[in-house]
Every structure is written in structure tokens, then in C-alpha cells.
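Checklist before submission:
- one chain only
- standard amino acids only
- sequence pasted in full

Submission:
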Amino acid sequence: MALLAPWLKKPAGMVPLVLHNPDDTPFEGDARNALARLLDRFAAHGLRPVTAFELEFYLADPKAMDGKAQNPLSVLMSCMTVCFQSMS
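Returned file contents:
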């Protein structure tokens, strides 16, 4: 089954694949097969894993061309100070 990729400018799609060995056994190096094996192990114990993603990012100042990274907290505090000053 092909999946559409509407976020691309040109029409495109993706085809998820599961790899198998020539003898039709699941290829152990395939990530989807590894996930299926792991889910089977959980199910054997009556468990179902629940996962979530933690998105983490940093804001970078494009004007800071010297290569020195700013501490994200100081950037946040600067933004908050400017925001609060503009509100008063």
C-alpha cells in the first residue's frame, strides 16, 4: 500500500516495505521485523507497550556568527523580559 506525502511540493508517495530472506523468513536486520518481534515478546507477557515522543529543540540566533552558543535559558529570559516590557 502506498502512502501519500502531501508535505512535499511535487506529488510523491512512500511504500513501506518489510524485508524477507530468500527463504521467506523475516530479515532480522529490518526495523519493522525487529519491532514485530519485540511486540510479540511483550504480548507473550500480556503487556502492550505505550510510547511517546519528547520533542526537544534549541533556538539559535542567526546573527551570532561567531559560533558561540548561547545558553537557552538566557535567551528565554531575554525574550520574557522584552515581552513583559512591551506589555507595560
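Reviewer check: The two ends are 57 Å apart (CA to CA).
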